[in-house]
Amino acid sequence: MILDNRSENLKVYIKAPSRLHFGILDLSGALNRKYGATGQTINEPCFELTAEESDRLEITGSEKHTERARSIVLQIAKIFDLPTDIKIQIFRGIPSHIGLSSTTQLTLAIGKALTYLCDRSVPIIELARRAGRGKNSGIGTYAFKSGGFIVDGGRRDEEFPPLIFRRDFPEEWQFVIATPDEKRGLDEESEEEFFEQIKAPVEIARKTCHLLVMKMVPAIAERDINVFGEALSEMDKLVGEAFSPQQGGIYQSGVVSDIVEYMLEKGAYGAGQSSWGPTVYGLVKNDVQGEGLKREVEGFLRKRNLSGEVCVVRPDNKGARVETG
């Protein structure tokens, strides 16, 4: 047992959101800081799980998540010198390597659960850092911690990227997300290798940072969806240009590129590829436009004989939901 002096087993429920990653701001390192990033927390898909004390390690749920969860439990237990007598039930999950922060969300959810059951208070940032998250971007971690529209300031050496801006996203604005059954994005090991090699021109960094500060952020403050959408599309193309040596173009595949263009053609205010893809997002102003664009994109995939998932998601301005008892 984790703690023997309690008459009843503790239990914790955690719901962890996804995040859209709008891009890395600076791959040049010209100012002796690496990366910097911006993104938005969304409510779906999500990890939803419960964890409770047990006499052994037991994990139930979809097989595609349970093996990863087991590895994470063992990792967290080793890092913080904790027992692994825990029962985890995973009810819903975020598919891995599609650009929505699956690994970070599952790591933080399990880390939060295990440390709670062991009566250890570990701040989320410390948990993420010691578990190896946030090496290139802190957006997923801050999405878990507080939700909203997020900007991190990159890092020097091995520091965790600081949160430099966070704001509630207009809740009536929504995103249509489409994940075609294309090649998955990079795994953690491949991503690390890539980031060690790439160095994009400083001019791209100047453009992305200027765009962020003078167009994206003010548009959120003024709730101007037209300007924000324009900035979103511009940011997506600039970041894609910086990453094109690895992706072979602005987008990770021709299908992703076509979906982005189709969403814009059908009325999305802005559109782009989240992280390494293949998930594509399109910004809409409300439920009605969201459902309409969803149907259009589903029809587009059918005409192309492509399979995939399309859904309408909402901004999440709260971060992970944790209930204990």
UniProtKB/TrEMBL annotation:
GO terms for molecular function: ATP binding; beta-ribofuranosylaminobenzene 5'-phosphate synthase activity. Pathway: Cofactor biosynthesis; 5,6,7,8-tetrahydromethanopterin biosynthesis. GO terms for biological process: amino acid biosynthetic process. Residues 77-148 form the GHMP kinase N-terminal domain. Gene3D superfamilies: 3.30.230.10, GHMP kinase, C-terminal domain. InterPro entries: GHMP_kinase_C_dom, GHMP_kinase_C_sf, GHMP_kinase_N_dom, RFAP_synthase, Ribosomal_Su5_D2-typ_SF, Ribsml_uS5_D2-typ_fold_subgr. It is an enzyme of class 2 (transferase). Residues 216-298 form the GHMP kinase C-terminal domain. Its EC number is 2.4.2.54. It catalyses: 5-phospho-alpha-D-ribose 1-diphosphate + 4-hydroxybenzoate + H(+) = 4-(beta-D-ribofuranosyl)phenol 5'-phosphate + CO2 + diphosphate. The keyword Ubl conjugation does not apply. It comes from the Archaea. Keywords: Amino-acid biosynthesis, ATP-binding, Glycosyltransferase, Nucleotide-binding, Transferase. Signal peptide: none annotated. Catalyzes the condensation of 4-aminobenzoate (pABA) with 5-phospho-alpha-D-ribose 1-diphosphate (PRPP) to produce beta-ribofuranosylaminobenzene 5'-phosphate (beta-RFA-P). Belongs to the beta-RFA-P synthase family. Homodimer. This is Beta-ribofuranosylaminobenzene 5'-phosphate synthase. It comes from candidate division MSBL1 archaeon SCGC-AAA261D19.
